Fold this protein.
Amino acid sequence: MKMEKIIAKAGVLVEALPYIQQFNRKVILVKFGGSVIDDENLMHSILRDIAFMAAAGMQPVIVHGGGKAINAELKTMSIEPQFINGLRYTCDRTIKVVDRVLHKVINASLVRFLRRECGTDAVAVSGKNILRCERITTTDKDSGKELDLGFVGKVVNVDTPQLDWILKRRQIPVITPLACDQNGQIFNINADMAACVIATQMKVCKLVFLSDVPGVLKNPADPSTLISTIHCRDIAGLAEQGIISGGMLPKLHSAAEAIAAGVEKVHLIDGHLQHALLLEIFTDQGIGTQIV
């Protein structure tokens, strides 16, 4: 029985060989947020999978969020989190909390684990250094009135030479979703949107979103209603039907823009499924929802 298990493991490695060859030296951007980060065991499993990807010759890039940790810190300061159309309203006090939590708590812990426990050469990369942005607003769905979001921006430029330099050194960049405008003002960037712009300007092979849902569901209460493939042209219709809403809406709009700009595929997968990332990369069937 023991020998059968060993042979089975060898078979899995052989099955993965074509994918290892196909994606050798290819850049794959992985984005995950607070729902994944909050589960330490899950987070460590995902980081080990990313370390495996790097050891297999791929070039992973990480963009992380941290909404739940930010909300917890805001609560201790008696600041009530506010969201408008899926985006965090960010006042002067909030942007300071976001900056501190993302850099000193979340990013630092991810880099530390990748280095100490996974044996990889991970490096902390502040979005403030590589991302330039412009302030954005949003629109009220009912009245059409423009709504202020505070210090919330959209990325307009990425310092891709710096990221390329890191990758050439066989390092894993771990990026915080913050940016600065032309005057040096710090802005909060929706991590999904930041990941899409970075993926676009780096022309990555794959952009993978890890979250706490299997993908896009027709019925959020029923995992069996998973939509395995969504064409960019169908996103508007799904939004009108209410199938795509809240934080999923900016994610899919950004994904569509990334694909239009040359990213091959965008994947939405459940980070709570063990080795979900490897299953997505190394199997034909894949899991979750792919945007094409």
